[in-house]
Structures are given as structure tokens and as C-alpha cells.
User: Which sequence fits this backbone?
């Protein structure tokens, strides 16, 4: 299709010929016999009956009265095709007029989806580019079909069949229907490993995201084959082996074979484990003037004689890089050099500090985030456009993004920028579900009976990185309600600010009941990667009621008469966490220490100090046996010399010493066994967990044995009459038992059965407990 004309202008004579191919063809060509500019007086649009001439003119780069060239014709034609409204475009010049002739695509009147049951219309319409009142374009339809097929593949329906149908409705419009045959969901029958000699297939299957189909696969969706998940599984295997001494580990291949008869995959990983190494001599060398290598030697996490771990090498690089950068060398580079000694099976590591090339960040480009906002990802970087490029800052940002738990995978790469000293940072992420629904149950003696609890949690609310949690629990005599919200970057700083609202109702005791409600405002700040601090303001109102106040012991008669009671306090906590994962950790320490001062108004005036720590250690890699030890304690005292209120003293619950109910041990009034709480407590616990024998490890069940011990003693509540309370001495309680822990689709759940073997006669026993498993 050629259109040409010659016309005289005040500037020059230009002979222009434009050659274009329709959208059914491929490309648009334009050529001129002279490379000089020309001017037109007007634009004549023909064929745009429905779209309108102004829509065509707005897509052109050619304007009457201004110079244009052949390149402007090329660009204008391409922009017209890009709108999707036209199947053919022809451009010519006649005298001083630019003539644009278009053939219009049909318009879509309505889009419907037929046959879809697993994905709703509302979700499908967001996946297609074709829109009502938009153009009907064959190329756009083909792209829509591919998007829909990908969406079904993501839910395990790779054999979905999708076709389109159109129905004319007049005036150049059509109704468009996507006809979907969803097919059957593919499953994963087996996940096999070959070449693994040191770790069993069961152990390796527990490390990867992809799981064999099971009872709850329809909820977890972990049995869906996906090429990206397979690559992530390969990386999980590498990291596991690299961190357990196998520096030569390789995944030779991974493949998935689909059986058309059963619609099930068999996935096989072929691995080469290699030899297991320990660290040899470790040294730091520096070629940067002013950087003393000897001062950096103590920063290395890799130690001679320890099992080789890639994460120790990375941690060493991180610490050395931070120290060198803070000393005024932002472009310094830390490079590890490993030297294998096959005879001794050791790897010596030399950390070389040298002056890297100067580079600056041109831009940070984020890709793949479908729900998480760009700024949520960008704020995890300690550098921005124009800053000095620092590889360690990139690595640290990657670790932060992975710890958020928002993404299946995080990959950060670089590419050259617009100048030799410019670098473009590419961040590729894959979003994952961040909402959880938790359920739990328990049974308590002493009249409480069965307790049910449920919670809904979202840690990336609306893609903004905000955390929100709503929970409720209750039984025959108790009700508990909680709402929590956290903004992780308050006012643009790395400060986590939030609030907690709560209300608890308890009618456990025969002669009285109580309800407490209130809120806390908190701000948390990181001190380093493992340590943080939190400051809170706490407000609580406690209301005691009784239908038979004379039947109560004297302290409780006073709290009923004085209700409601207000407590206003400030508290400060230091939290330390090096756990490898929050769910079923295998190594690391989690600890906290808290001090609270009450007396900012209200009815309570005290100082409390409490703390707890738990450490995890893998006792057997091959058997996946994990041991843990914990200890805790606290003390409260009056700041005015007056007696404490009953509700100011410590109470231990059924998680502190298993085998005893909430408020089931410690000082009590002899009348009605009313619990007083205590001024001091100590607890210790030892536990070992292991995969449940006879149960596939992929099912997520683990067994455990534990030993708990502790005491709650002391009393500072004024006793005006009656017999003195019992249990105020430092008598030890202890229990032993077994647990079943399940990494369920609703979160980690556990069942504990404990038998107290050290107890007092007035203690209240609770042998069986259901609940949500926590690392603390």
C-alpha cells in the first residue's frame, strides 16, 4: 500500500512515499527520496466512523504548520495500530493535506466467560486486556488466551481448553465469549531423589515447596507443578547442602513427567552431594590503603574446624563490608577465595578487601509484584538512585525482602546503565499468599471445659506491608477478643508503629467474674538485624462482679467493691531473634526482656521486670531431630511501699508449665481457692521434636517429648482477715509429657499431654491441651 505526492513548500520539495502492512501482516515501512522536512496545512481522516477523527489525530505525531519527516509517518502509523482500534492504516500526502485512511476493528460490546467454576468472572476479567467498549483485536485475543491458560496452570489445570465465540450486535459491535473447559486438576504422585547418600528422600522432601498430593492439598495447593517452583526447590536444596558442609553439591537435573492416564506428575531430582568439608584456616587480606586486615579478622563468622556453611561466609562478607564502608570506603569490595584440600576435606577461606570500580545506582526496577506495592519493596534498600553502588547493600536488601514472607522468590540482578559508571538494579519477585486462618482447641479441668480459638491474620494488608490480626476464643466460661495492627514503616522511617485492642471475659469462678479491656500503643525500632526494642503505652480497665460478695475471700471482696480498676503504664522490651524460621525452627535463639512501670494515673503503681529465652539446636540432620531449651522469670514490686492489687501480680498460664491450667498454680486464698498470683516466678523447659514415625514427613506431623518445671511464689497483696494464703513459698512444680505438632494449612497446631509429677494439693491440673504452636 503506497501513497505518494509532491508538493511545493517554502522550505523545500519533499517526495514522500509511505508503505504499510495491515495488522494481519507484520511491519510498517516508510521511505522518502529526500531527508528534508515538509509542512502540511491540514489532516484529512477517513474511515473513523465510530472511533472519531479526533481519536486518530491525537495518535499522530504530525501537526499542521510544523515540520515533519518520514520518521514521523512511521511513528504515527505504529501508534495508530497500537491503539488496537484499526485493522488497516494508510497514510498519504495530497497537496498540503495529510490523508489518513483507516479500517476500524469491531468494538467489543460485552465480555462473558462460560464454563468457569474454579476461577470467578471477577478474577478472569482482570487477566484479559480486551475490555467492553474496547477494540476487538485478534492479536489481543491471543494474548488474553495465553493469560487465561497461565492462570489455570497456576491452580494445577494445565490441560484447560479455552476458545472464543463472537456474536454481532449491530453498529460494528460484537459480544465476546471465552468458552472454558477447565479439565481436571493435575496432581503430584511422587517426588523422588537419586544420588542422595547422606540425607534420605523424606528429609529432602521436607525442604522443598512442592509437595506430593495429600489430604489437604486442595487447601495448601502445594501439589501444583510449576516450573518456577521447581527452580526454587533446586535452590532450597543447594542452600541446605551448602550450609551443612557440602560445598560441591549440584542438582544434576530435575524433571517432571505427566501421566496422561492419571493426570499426575512424577518429579525426580538427580543430585550429586559431593564431599563434606570443614573450615580450614581463615584470613582477611586488604589492598585498600588505610584498611587494617588484622582489625577485620575478628568479624569473620567462619571459624577453623567448624562445619563449612555458606551462610557463615556470607555473614562474614556482610560484617566486613559494613565495617569498611563505615570507615569511609563505600566502593570497597570483599571477595572470598576458597581453597579446597581434598585430603583433609577442608576449605580455607581468604577474604580479600580491594577497591572496587566506582559505580552509582541509576535506577531500581521492580518486576513481578502483582499485589505488593513498589514502595514496600523499594524501602528495604538502604540505597536509592544516585547513591554509590554497594553489593553488600544489595545482598542485605535481598535478605530483608525474603524475611518479610511476602514472596515465593526474590532475585536481584544488575545490568549496565546509561553510562559506564551507572548500574541498574533489577528486582524480580513472585508474590505469595500472606493471609492465614488459624484454629485451635483445648480442654481445661475445673469447670472451664472445651475452649475454641480462631484467628485471621494478614501480614501484607492491601499490598502495603501492613500487619493486621483479628482473633477470638472462648469456652463455656471465657471469652477473649483481640485486634492488632502494625505499620512497619511509620512516617517513612524503619519504625514499626501499631496498636492492640483487647477484651477478655472470665466467669470461671463460682462466686465472681471479671472482664478486662484496654489497648496499647507501640513503636518498635531495630538496633541491628537480630536485636530490636519496643516502647509501649498500656491502658487496661478491670471490672470484677459478684452475686454473692460475702462468699469471696477478703482481697476479692475489695476488688469487687472498688471496680472498675484502671492501670496506666509504660513498658520497654528488648527482643533478640536469630531463628532460621518462625515456624518449626531448627536453630537459633529467641529472647526478650521487658520492664514495665505503672502509675501514670490509674489505680496501680508497680515496677515489673520479666524475661524469657529459648534456644534451638538440630540434634540430628539426617533424622531431623531438634532440641530446645528455654528459661524465664520475673519479679514485681510496689513503687510506693503500698500493697499490690491482686491483678498486678504475676499469673502463670498453661503454656508456661504444661500440665497445669491457667492460674492453676501459685499462691491462693484458702477460702474458695481464689488465685492471688505471685511476686516472683521462674520456669525452665526442655523439649525434643522429631518426624512422626510411620507418617509421611510431607504431611507435616512431628512428635515431641518435654519436661517443664518452675515456680510462682511470694505475695504482696494485703490480707486483712482470715487465714493466710497458701502456696506463697518457693515450692517447685514439674511435669513431663508428649506432644503432636502439625504444620497444618491453618498454621502450626499442637496437642500436649502432660503429667505433673511435682505439684501441690491445691493446684489445678490440665493434662490435655490443644492450641497453636509458637516458638516462644
Assistant:
Amino acid at each position: 500500500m503506497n501513497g505518494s505526492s509532491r508538493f511545493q513548500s517554502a522550505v523545500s520539495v519533499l517526495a514522500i512515499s509511505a508503505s504499510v502492512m495491515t495488522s494481519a501482516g507484520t511491519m510498517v515501512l516508510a521511505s522518502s527520496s529526500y531527508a528534508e522536512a515538509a509542512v502540511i496545512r491540514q489532516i484529512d481522516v477517513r474511515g473513523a466512523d465510530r472511533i472519531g477523527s479526533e481519536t486518530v489525530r491525537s495518535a499522530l505525531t504530525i501537526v499542521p504548520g510544523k515540520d515533519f519527516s518520514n520518521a514521523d509517518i512511521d511513528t504515527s502509523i505504529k501508534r495508530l495500530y497500537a491503539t488496537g482500534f484499526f485493522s488497516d492504516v494508510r497514510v498519504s500526502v495530497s497537496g498540503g493535506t495529510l490523508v489518513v485512511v483507516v479500517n476500524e476493528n469491531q468494538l467489543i460490546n460485552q465480555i462473558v466467560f462460560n464454563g468457569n467454576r474454579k476461577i470467578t468472572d471477577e478474577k478472569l476479567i482482570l487477566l484479559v486486556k480486551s475490555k467492553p467498549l474496547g477494540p476487538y483485536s485478534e492479536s489481543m485475543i491471543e494474548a488474553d488466551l495465553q493469560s487465561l491458560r497461565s492462570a489455570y496452570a497456576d491452580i494445577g489445570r494445565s490441560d484447560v481448553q479455552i476458545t472464543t465465540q463472537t456474536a454481532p450486535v449491530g453498529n460494528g459491535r460484537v459480544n465476546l465469549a471465552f468458552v472454558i473447559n477447565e479439565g481436571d486438576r493435575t496432581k503430584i504422585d511422587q517426588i523422588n531423589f537419586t544420588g542422595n547418600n547422606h540425607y534420605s528422600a523424606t528429609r529432602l522432601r521436607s525442604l522443598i515447596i512442592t509437595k506430593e498430593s495429600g489430604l489437604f492439598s486442595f487447601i495448601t495447593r502445594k501439589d501444583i507443578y510449576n516450573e518456577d517452583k521447581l527452580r526454587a526447590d533446586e535452590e532450597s536444596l543447594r542452600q541446605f547442602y551448602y550450609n551443612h558442609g557440602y560445598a560441591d553439591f549440584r542438582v544434576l537435573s530435575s524433571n517432571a513427567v505427566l501421566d496422561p492416564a492419571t493426570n499426575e506428575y512424577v518429579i525426580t531430582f538427580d543430585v550429586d552431594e559431593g564431599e563434606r568439608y570443614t573450615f580450614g584456616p581463615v584470613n582477611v587480606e586488604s589492598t585498600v590503603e588505610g584498611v587494617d586486615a588484622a582489625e577485620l579478622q575478628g568479624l569473620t563468622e567462619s571459624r577453623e574446624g567448624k562445619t563449612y556453611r555458606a551462610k557463615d561466609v556470607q555473614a562474614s562478607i556482610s560484617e566486613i563490608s559494613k565495617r569498611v564502608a563505615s570507615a569511609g570506603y563505600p566502593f570497597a569490595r570483599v571477595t572470598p577465595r576458597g581453597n579446597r584440600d581434598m585430603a583433609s576435606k577442608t576449605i580455607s577461606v581468604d577474604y580479600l578487601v580491594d577497591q572496587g570500580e566506582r559505580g552509582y545506582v541509576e535506577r531500581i526496577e521492580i518486576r513481578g509484584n502483582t499485589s505488593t506495592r513498589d514502595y514496600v519493596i523499594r524501602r528495604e534498600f538502604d540505597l536509592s538512585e544516585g547513591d554509590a553502588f554497594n553489593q553488600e547493600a544489595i545482598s542485605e536488601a535481598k535478605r530483608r525482602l525474603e524475611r518479610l514472607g511476602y514472596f515465593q522468590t526474590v532475585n536481584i540482578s544488575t545490568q549496565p546503565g546509561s553510562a559506564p559508571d551507572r548500574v541498574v538494579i533489577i528486582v524480580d519477585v513472585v508474590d505469595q499468599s500472606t493471609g492465614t486462618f488459624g484454629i485451635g482447641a483445648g480442654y481445661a479441668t475445673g469447670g472451664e471445659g472445651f475452649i475454641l480459638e480462631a484467628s485471621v491474620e494478614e501480614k501484607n494488608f492491601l499490598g502495603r506491608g501492613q500487619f493486621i490480626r483479628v482473633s477470638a476464643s472462648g469456652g463455656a466460661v471465657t471469652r477473649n477478643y483481640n485486634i492488632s495492627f502494625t505499620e512497619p514503616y511509620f512516617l517513612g522511617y524503619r519504625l514499626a508503629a501499631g496498636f492492640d485492642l483487647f477484651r477478655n471475659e472470665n466467669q470461671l469462678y463460682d462466686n465472681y467474674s471479671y472482664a478486662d479491656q484496654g489497648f496499647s500503643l507501640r513503636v518498635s525500632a531495630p538496633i541491628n538485624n537480630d536485636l530490636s526494642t519496643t516502647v509501649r503505652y498500656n491502658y487496661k480497665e478491670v471490672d470484677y462482679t459478684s452475686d454473692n460478695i460475702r462468699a469471696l475471700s477478703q482481697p476479692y471482696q475489695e476488688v469487687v467493691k472498688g471496680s472498675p480498676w484502671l492501670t496506666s503504664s509504660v513498658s520497654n522490651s528488648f527482643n533478640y531473634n536469630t531463628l532460621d524460621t518462625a515456624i518449626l525452627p531448627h536453630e537459633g535463639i529467641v529472647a526478650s526482656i521487658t520492664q514495665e512501670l505503672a502509675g501514670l494515673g490509674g489505680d496501680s503503681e508497680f515496677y515489673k521486670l520479666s524475661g524469657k529465652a529459648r534456644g534451638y539446636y538440630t540434634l540430628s540432620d539426617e533424622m531431623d531431630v531438634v532440641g530446645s531449651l528455654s528459661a524465664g522469670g520475673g519479679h514485681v514490686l510496689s513503687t510506693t511501699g503500698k500493697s499490690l492489687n491482686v491483678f498486678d501480680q504475676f499469673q502463670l498460664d498453661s503454656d508456661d508449665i504444661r500440665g497445669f491450667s491457667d492460674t492453676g498454680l501459685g499462691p491462693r486464698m484458702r477460702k474458695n481457692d481464689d488465685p492471688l498470683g505471685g511476686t516472683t516466678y521462674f520456669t525452665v523447659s526442655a523439649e525434643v521434636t522429631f518426624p512422626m514415625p510411620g507418617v509421611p514427613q510431607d504431611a507435616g506431623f512431628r512428635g515431641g517429648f518435654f519436661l517443664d518445671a518452675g515456680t510462682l511464689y511470694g505475695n504482696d497483696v494485703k490480707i486483712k482477715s482470715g487465714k493466710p494464703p497458701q502456696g506463697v513459698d518457693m515450692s517447685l512444680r514439674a511435669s513431663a509429657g508428649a506432644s503432636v505438632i502439625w504444620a497444618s494449612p491453618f498454621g502450626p497446631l499442637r496437642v500436649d499431654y502432660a503429667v505433673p509429677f511435682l505439684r501441690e494439693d491445691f493446684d489445678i491440673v490440665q493434662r490435655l491441651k490443644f492450641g497453636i504452636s509458637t516458638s516462644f
